[in-house]
Amino acid sequence: MRHLRALLCAAVLLAGFFCQKSTAQGQQRLSDTPDFLSNSVALADFMRLSLPKAAQVGVGEGSTTGNPGTPTIQVTSRLVFLDITVLDKKGRPVVNGLAKEDFSITEDKRPQTIFSFEAPQAHTIHEIAGDDTSDGKAPVTIFVLDLLNSSFEDFAFIRYSVRKYLAAQPLLLSSPAEMMVIGNKSLELMQGPTRNKEDLLYALDHLPPVIPYKWQADSFDGERFNQSLDALQQIALQNEGVPGRKNIVWVGHGSPSFSPWRLTQPVMHELQQYMHATTNMLVDARVSLFVIYPGLKVGHFVNLSGRSPLSIEAADAQANIDNDHPFAESINFGVFVNETGGQLFYNRNDVDAEIGRSRQLGSEYYTLTYQPRGGDANGKFRQIRVTLRDHNLRAVTKTGYYAPDKSAPIDPHRLTNINFAEAARSTIPFSSLDVKVSGIVRHPENRTADIALLLQSKGIDWQAIDNGKSTAGITLAAVSITGSREVMASKVERLILSVRTQDPSHLEKLVTHLQLTVRVPPETQSIRVLTETADGGRIGAVDLDRKAIEAAPARPAPEPQLLCHQPCQVKLPIPPEQ
User: Fold this and answer.
1) Counting runs of H as helices and runs of E as strands, what totals does the chain give?
2) 277, 274, 329: which is closest to 304 by C-alpha?
3) CA 204 to CA 407: how far, in whole Å?
4) Do the strands 343-345 and 366-370 form a parallel or antiparallel pair, or are they unpaired?
5) CATH architecture type of domain 2-52+412-572
6) Cα–chain-centroid distance for residue 416?
7) Mapped to the 3 state alphabet, what secondary structure does 264-299 carry?
8) Which of 84-98, 106-120, 233-247 has the lowest average pLDDT?
9) Residue 73 needs a FRET pair 20 to 30 A away by CA distance; which of 143, 287, 500, 508 works?
10) Closest CA to 440 of 423, 422, 455, 452
11) Beta bridge partners of 81
12) What is the pLDDT of residue 347?
């Protein structure tokens, strides 16, 4: 099951149509950007246009009055897992001396019967000689380095702090960890689950420097919000159905916050439903979120979407709102910390120590399950409360979930992601799109490979736009896979192809030159490259085995440069008349 966790990361489809500024052979750089790609879109309009389908749903209060056929995320499990960290008065985890009888659980104030109980000692790895994996019981740490929502200086401090923490760990970590980075336009898996700290350090040290340009302008707030929540959804999706607890250690600020008074009621409702869906996905997957603000001084101020500047303490306090309706007063990234049983760290410069604290809180926990008794399938929030017989102890766990809604249809956005992920893991061919590898260049010193591709126009859905142009959206991905089909690295990009013709005879002759760089960890036995149409209807795949990878010419990697990938399109030349 572990390979499925890492693999589903390859299904990340970020909202907004952006691609890398660099282009391959035969491509030309656009000098302008179409109106529908404008960065100055008003926040409310942006949310209407670019929220994923999962955001426009009814899983919360009032969902039954939504538009018929609107997709949604629904809770299907009738067994609720609670991963509970027990703290004493000094905030220290209590890992011994407690039994099932010491815990009481209520859901919407209704007492629940505890179905099963596991003590913290059950969540450790059973060491096997030469094995650096988990037996499924130990928690997994998912490091997310937040370039998207950080200043250049803060991100440098993030890298330094994560490296400082890892360097102090033993060669073999006590539980598996993986490393991701959320950047200007994508969520990249840099290193799949491993207990080898050197693999994590290697991936961190070879992360190219990038200017976080979206952080610098308020006009990108909507995109950063969307990308941040989409990343949480994708991480939850990749972990759904996988045993054990997963702890996201998000080092950075997370998405911008929004207040309802600035938004129209329809837009606010959409945002709340997006938050509801994300909450349920995290809860279902047993994911806890720990957020660490890097390098902030006491008295630092933030601006919450037009309000007067507030101290960071006051801003964070707004995450603790009415549990009967967690997103009623503020669209706040910190709410997910409370809802998932994690913790928020701020006004501290010892980020490495807070990373250690996050891993401790996320690994020393009890697991209790119960089958909900009572309650209607009305899509409303169900509040969970856990108390202990010893009132000197405090339980930290998720605060609730949104009830299932029997009338809610299945979310097609989620199904598309699953289908794409399965295609990456599968060994069968996919030929709905015709894609071929035209060249490979290895960079052994940083364990990456540049893959050049030729994409035929057959099967691509071209759409006519203004000025005689046609455009088509595709997703391009590459995954590095082990012999057991475990994904160790992935890179996903969403591109808009653009050509100055609307003639069908011309469009069908187009050949697109593309290039993608993917990490190639030592465990890699093959690379699968996938292309998918924007609607998820057609997929093409091409495979490279280890021999083909090793036979590729090796060249020095380009010198690291500060990359500032602005929004762009891939502009295609018009084919000549025959």
Assistant:
1) 12, 25
2) 329
3) 45
4) unpaired
5) Sandwich (2.60)
6) 15
7) CHHHHHHHHHHHHHHHHHHHHCCEEEEEECCCCCCC
8) 233-247
9) 143
10) 452
11) 369
12) 64
